[in-house]
Task: structure prediction
Amino acid sequence: MKLLVDDLLLLQDGFKIPTSQHPLGCQVYLQLISICGDLLAIHKVVGFGSPSASQFCAWCMENSNNLHLMQMGPKRPGFTVLESAKEWKSAKTLKGQEELHRRTGIRWSKVNRLTYRIPNMHVALGIMHKWLEGVLAEHFRYCWGFQEDGQEKKRALRKANTKRKRVQ
Result:
């Protein structure tokens, strides 16, 4: 990760590429904005705690003890994420780092060297794990109880009709 971030730091100031239409070159800039992946990978790369940590959320300050409330806590400002990460990095002992991580849910990450990024706002959950597999829809229906009136009846009727067609 260090090598990638080193290259991105060089490329963020831009470089010139000469072309046939622009012999003096066109200025090109390269910046890594969003990091996309599954929850575990994102948290590891960006420096957040695991989903089972007490401060588990990258976007808010909700504690895992209040998870059953299914409400978003107060927003976590990006500058506090960077401050906590720098504090973790400068801690003198491993025990000090562990205490800071337990309290804030944040560790230092190599991508924090990219100063143009807002660590907790420039992450995105991968489409495969949240949408294509239907995890979010299942959570809405079964965990959070968001169901249309008669949706269960419609589903049961559809199953019965499918079975009836197979028998005929």
